[in-house]
Structure formats: C-alpha cells, structure tokens
C-alpha cells in the first residue's frame, strides 16, 4: 500500500507575549491510502494545529518551524504557472498558489464549527457552485448544482434544499452540508476536525455512519480529529494519541482499546464509558496538562503519571515499536 501522507518531525509554534508554545512537537506519522486515522487527546493538545499544518493553514501567530509533510500526488496537476508533477511532494516546498490548487481538490478540511464556516448570505447551492467554480471556471452552474444535490442526497438531505440558506438547517444538517462541501471536489484525503462534537449522540452516530459509507464510495483516506475516543472505536482503523503536542502512542484501533500501552492512553480509555461494562468505574486523570510555554523537561506526562521513574523527569522518551504492533513513547518499555 502507498503512503498518501508521511509527516516527519513536524513542529509548529505559536509565539505570544508569554513566550513560545510548541503546539506540535516533532510529530512523525505515516498514513496509508484508504485508511482512517483517528487523532485523539485532551483539548489543547495540538490536534487542530496538526490538522491545519498539513493543509498549511496554521493561523497567526502560529508557524511551522520544522519538519516535512510529504503528500503523494497520484496524477500530474496541470496549471499555467504552478503545475505539480505526480509523486511525493513536500507540501512545505510548494508555493501558496500551488497549495491553493491542492486545498479542497487533493486534501479537504472540514472545520470544527459549521456555522462560522458557512456564509449566512449565500444559499447552500451557492456555496457549492462557488467552490467548484474556483477550481474549474468552465463548470456550468447546472452541473455544479446537480453534483451538490447528489452529495446532499447521499447525506440524507433532499436535493431541493440547495436553494435554502444555512439558518434554515439544524446543526446536524449544517454539519452534513460541510461534509458535502468537503467532498465536492473529490479529494483524496479528508481531514475532519471534531465533525460531530456539537451534536447529540443520535445525530452523531448517524453522521459517522454516513461518513463511513462515503469513505468507501469516494475511496477516501481520512484523518478524524476528536477529543472523544468513543467516537473512534467504530470509525478509525488506527488511532494516534497526542499529549501536549507530542505523539505518545499510535496503534490499530482494536488492539489499542484492548491493550493500551502508554499510561496516558490507559487513563484516557478509563474515562470512556462502556455500555457493555456498566460495572466499570470511570476514572479521570488527576492534574492538568502542562502549560505549553513552560513545559516540564523529560516526558510531558510525568507530573501526572502513576508509573513515573527518575528517567522520566529528565529524558524525552522516543517513539519506538510497541508490542501491540504500533508505537509508543514511554520509558516503561525501553528499560528506562
Ligand atoms: N491562536 C493561537 N494563539 C496562541 N496559541 C495558540 C493559538 N491556537 C492554539 N494555540 C496553542 O496551541 C495549543 C493547541 O491548540 P489546538 O491545536 O487548538 O488544540 P486541540 O485542537 O487539541 O484542542 C493550545 O493549547 C494553545 O497553547
Ligand atoms: Mg481542536
């Protein structure tokens, strides 16, 4: 299988008056075609920053300071001045014009909040036609609207509703519209940031199921960002766990749930309710994640870790092979 995305030592910093916060700290990971990677971790650990960095959309005062974002382009992209040849390209080396061609068409990003991403003055159909015309000025309005109708239909929204405006839709419907817009240009990679966080659990379950069906239909590779590990149990092939900007564990979903290796992953899973085990006691993780500006030396999790050893206070653990077929960054497994 080809890796559609391969991230090497990606580091993103926000420079503020208080100092520099490393929101993404030397993250490396590979993503195979047609798989869904779940990206999880507590709020503020850098998930959105990592997702946006892949699209080169980190907003001021943040910037990518190090690393490579290698993306596999299947077919040559022809354009007047900024053609891109197929093969592996480091997105950091592309011009802003080249990135603009890739965004939406090769890599699409569904933002966390659908209400602020939709323009209240434009109908849903206008959103679709503007997006499609931006990438293909030749496309007829009718053709764009027909495509919009088909996408809405597969997301359980009647195609006639292309003429309606965002405020005429419920929260769940708006999120479906966002997913439809994300898929409109048939991207290879879809990054979806907390797509169901603001919705009730029934609508959440429906939308996740629709996304799984669309993933098959569109041959998509997905990154699904969420602070809710429960959401990933059914939808992700692999899960990456982030803690204060660092990747601490990555593994296939089923084994990660069965036998989590990193103490932070264990703690996160202990806080997920399990309907099949009502007797399970829910626990929470004592303490709070460290301040990113004044982060502790050694392993970032050591102040909260029940298994802390001397080495953890001094040395940053590197990400190494774990016995469950993934990778883990913890001194417990490297003999300290
Ligand atoms: N606009 C910003 N200005 C300064 N710091 C920011 C900004 N956005 C994010 N950060 C920093 O980056 C960290 C990670 O943020 P984010 O990527 O949004 O996390 P998540 O999506 O996991 O909740 C935050 O804890 C914060 O310290
Ligand atoms: Mg976020």
In summary, what is this structure?
By secondary structure, this protein is α/β, with parallel strands linked by helices. The protein contains ten helices and twelve strands. It is globular and about 65 Å long.
Bound molecules: adenosine-5'-diphosphate, magnesium ion
Q: In order across it, which strands form the biggest sheet?
A: 6-7-8-3-9-10-12-11
As residue ranges, the low-confidence spans are none
CATH topology of the domain at 3-236: Rossmann fold
Strand content: 15-25%
Structural class category: alpha/beta
Q: How many separate helices?
A: 10
Number of strands: 12
Give the termini separation. Answer: 35 Å
Helix percentage range: 25-40%
Tell me, rounded to a whole number, the average pLDDT. 91
- Named at the architecture level, the CATH assignment of the domain at 3-236 is 3-Layer(aba) Sandwich
The whole-angstrom Rg is 21 Å
Looking at the structure, what is the overall shape?
Answer: globular
Largest sheet: 8 strands, mixed
């Amino acid at each position: 299988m080809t890796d559609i995305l391969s991230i090497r030592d990606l580091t993103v910093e926000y420079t503020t008056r208080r100092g520099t916060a490393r929101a993404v700290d030397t993250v490396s990971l590979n993503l195979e075609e047609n798989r869904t990677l779940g990206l999880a971790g507590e709020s503020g650990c850098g998930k959105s920053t990592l997702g946006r960095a892949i699209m080169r959309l980190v907003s001021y005062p943040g910037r990518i300071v190090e690393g490579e974002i290698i993306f596999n382009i299947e077919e040559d992209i022809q354009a007047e001045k900024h053609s891109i040849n197929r093969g592996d390209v480091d997105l950091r080396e592309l011009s802003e014009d080249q990135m603009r061609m890739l965004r939406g068409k090769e890599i699409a990003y569904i933002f966390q909040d659908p209400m602020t991403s939709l323009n209240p003055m434009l109908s849903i159909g206008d959103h679709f036609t503007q997006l499609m015309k931006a990438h293909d000025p030749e496309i007829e309005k009718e053709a764009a609207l027909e495509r919009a109708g088909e996408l809405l239909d597969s997301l359980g929204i009647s195609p006639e509703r292309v003429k309606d405006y965002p405020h005429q839709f419920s929260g769940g419907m708006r999120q479906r519209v966002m997913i439809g817009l994300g898929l409109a240009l048939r991207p290879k990679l879809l990054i979806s940031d907390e797509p169901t966080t603001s919705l009730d659990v029934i609508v959440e379950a429906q939308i996740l199921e629709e996304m799984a069906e669309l993933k098959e239909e569109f041959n998509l590779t997905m990154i699904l960002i969420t602070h809710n590990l429960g959401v990933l149990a059914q939808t992700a092939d692999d899960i990456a766990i982030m803690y204060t900007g660092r990747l601490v564990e990555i593994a296939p979903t089923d084994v990660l749930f069965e036998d989590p290796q990193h103490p932070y992953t264990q703690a996160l899973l202990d806080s997920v309710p399990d309907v099949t085990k009502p007797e399970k006691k829910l626990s929470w993780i004592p303490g709070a994640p460290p301040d990113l500006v004044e982060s502790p030396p050694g392993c970032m999790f050591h102040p909260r870790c029940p298994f802390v050893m001397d080495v953890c206070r001094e040395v940053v653990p590197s990400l190494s092979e774990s016995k469950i077929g993934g990778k883990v960054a913890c001194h417990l497994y490297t003999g300290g």
